[in-house]
Design a protein that fits this description.
Chain B: GO terms for molecular function: FAD binding; oxidoreductase activity. Chain B: Pfam families: FAD-oxidase_C, FAD_binding_4. The complex is a heterodimer of chains A (about 350) and B (about 450). Chain A is α/β, with parallel strands linked by helices. Chain A is built from 19 helices and nine strands. A four-stranded parallel β-sheet of chain A has the order 7-6-8-9. A three-stranded parallel β-sheet of chain A has the order 1-2-3, sandwiched between helices. Classes of the chains: A alpha/beta (about 350), B alpha+beta (about 450). The complex binds flavin-adenine dinucleotide and iron/sulfur cluster (2 copies).
Chain lengths: ~350, ~450
């Protein structure tokens, strides 16, 4: 017996198969091996050494999994698949076995000063730390790629402090085979940002909640709803109220249970359109889009079709990875992908225009 | 068994390299299904794309004497897809198209890999109802549910899967393709092979297409719950409802342990202090449904119900039904090894059977939680164990053998809907007798002279 997995967690699954229809990779293949239940069976074969870690199926399936955790809320037995996947990747992707792009990224974001440099080129929000919070997490991807999101967030909620030196939450590490570093980074960040931490990234929110406690962490839409935020204005397109859809954040929805709030906020400023499959992963999935671009696009394809069919003007993301994925997918389309904060700022008349650009 | 190089080449040729698996890691997920404690060792997993490829694979298997286990979603609870003799697991999930949906003829033609819920939802969009509704509807396939003749939450008024299968296309182990029945509502040309294949558990032929009957969608439906002091009292309410001539679509019950487990997952605000919950539901014209709801609630109250409530809207009703569907996996929160059974008795003996189960559980010192399709007399006593506890599984098996015997004594059966598979095969003779068992074997011989289709299960 080895100790790759927490035994209680691994034992929980009774192989009922309830999770199969929720899994995007099973939907692609119809192969049990790429289903949550099949992956747990593989983990169970790995644990006692029946299969070696370099078995091609283990290598493939641990990486093919999106880590979207859609299999969790549907599991009546309460299997914590996300935790199992972290443990699996800790073993499967240890040291040099980790794909190099993930290694490179992890090296960069673990250095707070390097992250801070992005601020020189990109004007993300920046305020002094507030001793009691609430604080806005700038996010290592978002502050570089979409600095407009934090600016919009702070404009909507001026009480949010956004100090520049905050570091990375560690989700990237936890999802890519170094959950110890992931936990450490989360705790460090928790020390740097006092009080409630508000984040515009569902993935970061879930990871921080895991390590700092659910109480300290609020996903942005959740925070607005809790503060009784009344969105001002209206988003209009071509003389009419805009039609706006939402792409849920997998971890925001599946790990934190946040899904009502962003919908209500959108509906306050535009005509909300529920996409079929709004809750399903868009294929961004953290480093997935980088590591498995082909599969990432396969997962995205039905979503793009649904967006086009729904005839919407905007599709809202609540996670920077999803935002990037949707923007790339929607290149050449009439539909714009924006972050929730940007949409609300736009409705209030103080957002960037045209939205969806930097 | 191991596959020879020629067989490997032939299988690869039959479906293409991408759709065969031979390595230990790729095979591991196919060692088992949803049944605990049963595992096998497949030598290959094959994913055919169409009827022709299924025939080609069966041809290779017959030629080389390789066992073939057809598999849909692997959600069955009788170890019917466990490759106990090795060989090929034939996965039918790539045959996943709904070929036709006819409102004029009230039928659908579907491939076997389509999930039941997908068929039902597609039918619902066209204003039609596909009544078979197993708890596993989201995952279970049309092929698998036909091959096990699955029941479900609407069995009382609507019957089970067999009542909706009009015709089948199936490939025999010898490689021939047959079409039984069809689009006709009446057709008595020949033995009723459609019914024979329905419930044949992948031992006679591989189903490659099904024509199923649909009904117009009822205009209204209501669902409610009643709470009782004990499961036996709930059983009495069920008898009273049926005796009063009310046949609702759904009458399901859960005992206290099940309610607590389900509530822990679904958080619907179910009462966890009651001894049992009865879930009732009906559909049809609004006056009929409303009338039946009143009668059922009155009868429940007369039988001693603490409280009865109706779900306010469709979403609330769906949430209740979804909660009932997840009873089995939710129960595993109480212990990671859950062994569930499927004893079924004539409806008036339901309360007796419940009492017998309680007595047996107590005597063996086991935690047995019971839920089931009360209206069908179909009980799922579920033993929840700690897999680490020494000898616990043995005690559970002893207790279940007694539960089967009790069911038979009360005029019931060893399995109402989950099937025989490898799990119930040792008990089959007790239910059907030696003469019938011998006949089953001769039927199996006629379809599958080489004995390659799902050996070690029905007909073996
Ligand atoms: C939580 C839970 C709840 C359940 N609730 C119910 C319920 O309410 N009612 C009920 O009846 N069952 C229920 N089941 C049992 C199970 O879902 C059913 O037996 C279902 O019919 C199995 O479908 P499947 O696609 O998973 O088939 P599989 O498990 O893959 O196969 C079942 C059998 O069918 C054969 N088979 C599959 N496809 C074909 C084919 N195309 N041609 C020939 N043979 C084939 C297999 O060889 C096997 O013998 C439940 C199971 C679970 C885990
Ligand atoms: S993870 Fe949960 S839903 Fe999936 S098979 Fe295991 S117990 Fe069932
Ligand atoms: S995390 Fe997502 S992709 Fe991975 S097994 Fe669960 S549902 Fe499937």
């Amino acid at each position: 017996m080895s100790d790759i997995f927490d035994k209680d967690l691994l034992q929980r699954c009774i192989s009922c198969g309830f999770c199969l229809p929720a899994c995007p990779t099973y939907a692609l293949t119809g192969d049990e091996a790429s289903s949550p239940r099949g992956r747990i069976t593989l983990m169970r074969a790995l644990e006692p050494g029946e299969l070696a870690a370099d078995d091609p199926a283990l290598v493939e399936q641990s990486s093919f999994c999106l880590g979207c955790r859609a299999c969790e809320p549907v599991c009546p037995a309460g299997v914590r698949y996300g935790a199992l996947l972290e443990q699996w990747r800790d073993h499967q992707w240890r040291g040099r076995r980790r794909p190099w792009p993930a290694r490179l990224l992890m090296g960069i974001v673990a250095r707070a000063w390097l992250l801070g440099l992005q601020g020189l080129a990109r004007r993300h929000a920046r305020t002094r730390p507030a001793p009691a919070g609430p604080s806005l997490l700038l996010g290592c991807v978002e502050r570089g790629l979409y600095p407009g999101v934090s600016r919009a967030a702070v404009r909507l909620r001026p009480e949010l402090a956004a100090p520049s030196r905050q570091g990375c939450c560690g989700a990237l590490h936890a999802h890519n085979g170094d959950s110890a570093a992931g936990a450490r980074l989360a705790r460090t960040l928790g020390g740097r940002l006092p009080g409630t931490i508000v984040t515009t990234a569902g993935g970061c929110a879930a990871h921080l909640a895991e390590h700092l406690g659910r109480d300290r962490v609020r996903e942005f839409g959740e925070y607005l709803a809790e503060q009784g935020h009344r969105p001002a204005g209206e988003v209009r397109v071509a003389g009419r109220r805009a039609r706006v859809a939402l792409q849920d954040s997998c971890h925001g929805r599946n790990a934190l249970g946040v899904h009502r709030q962003p919908r209500q906020l959108i509906a306050a400023v535009a005509d909300y359109v529920e996409l079929p499959g709004a809750a399903d992963c868009c294929g961004a999935a953290g480093t997935y889009a980088l590591l498995r671009p082909h599969d990432s696009r396969r997962v995205l394809a039905p979503k793009l079709a649904a967006i086009e069919q729904a005839d919407v003007d905007f599709v809202v993301a609540v996670n920077p990875g999803c935002l990037r994925q949707l923007r790339r997918g929607l290149r050449g389309s009439r539909v714009r992908a924006v972050h929730l904060a940007e949409l609300l700022a736009l409705a209030g008349g103080n957002g960037p225009y045209p939205p969806g650009r930097r | 068994m191991r596959l020879g190089a020629t067989a490997v080449r032939a299988l690869t040729k039959a479906v293409g390299e991408e759709h065969v698996r031979f390595t230990p890691g790729e095979l591991a997920p196919y060692r088992r299904d949803a049944t605990p404690l049963f595992t096998g060792h497949p030598d290959a997993v094959v994913f055919p794309a169409d009827t022709g490829e299924v025939a080609a694979v069966l041809g290779v298997a017959t030629e080389h004497g390789i066992p073939v286990v057809p598999r849909g979603a692997g959600s069955n609870l009788c170890a019917a897809t466990v490759p106990s003799h090795g060989g090929i697991v034939l996965v039918l999930t790539r045959l996943n198209r709904i070929l036709e949906l006819s409102r004029d003829e009230l039928l659908a033609r579907v491939q076997p890999g389509v999930a039941v819920a997908r068929l039902a939802e597609t039918a619902a969009h066209a204003g039609l109802l596909y009544p078979p509704d197993p708890g596993s509807r989201g995952v279970a396939t049309v092929g698998g549910t036909i091959a096990t003749c699955a029941g479900g939450l609407r069995g009382l008024k609507y019957g089970v899967t067999r009542n909706y299968v009009l015709g089948l296309e199936a490939v025999l182990p010898t490689g021939e393709t047959i079409r039984t029945g069809g689009r006709l509502w009446k057709d008595v040309a020949g033995y009723d092979l459609t019914r024979l294949l329905t419930g044949s558990e992948g031992t006679l032929a591989v189903i490659t297409e099904a024509t199923v009957a649909l009904l117009p969608m009822p205009s209204h439906s209501r669902t409610g719950v009643a709470y009782f002091g004990s499961l036996a009292e709930a059983g009495q309410a069920v008898s009273a409802i049926l005796a009063a001539g009310v046949v609702p679509a759904t009458l399901e019950f859960l005992d206290r342990k099940c309610v607590a487990a389900v509530e822990a997952h679904a958080r619907l605000g179910l009462r966890t202090d009651a001894g049992a919950l009865l879930l009732f539901g009906d559909d049809g014209p609004i006056e009929v449904v409303a009338g039946n709801m009143v009668r059922i609630r009155t009868l429940c109250t007369e039988a001693g119900a603490w409280e009865t409530t109706l779900a306010e809207d469709v979403a609330a009703a769906d949430a209740l039904l979804a909660a009932r569907r997840c009873s089995l996996p939710a129960l595993s929160r109480l212990g990671a090894l859950t062994i569930l059974e499927d004893a079924t008795v004539p409806r008036p003996r339901l309360a007796d059977m419940v009492a017998r189960i309680d007595e047996i559980a107590d005597r063996h010192g086991l935690h047995i939680a019971t839920f089931g399709h009360a209206g069908d007399g179909n009980l799922h006593p579920t033993c929840v164990l700690d897999p680490g506890e020494h000898g616990a599984a043995d005690r559970a098996h002893k207790a279940f053998a007694e539960i089967f015997a009790a069911a038979l004594e009360l005029g019931g059966t060893i399995t109402g809907e989950h099937g025989v598979g490898a799990a119930k095969l040792p008990f089959l003779a007790d239910r059907v007798g030696d003469a019938q068992l011998a006949l089953l074997r001769r039927v199996k011989q006629a379809f599958d002279p080489a004995g390659i289709l799902n050996p070690g299960k029905l007909g073996s």
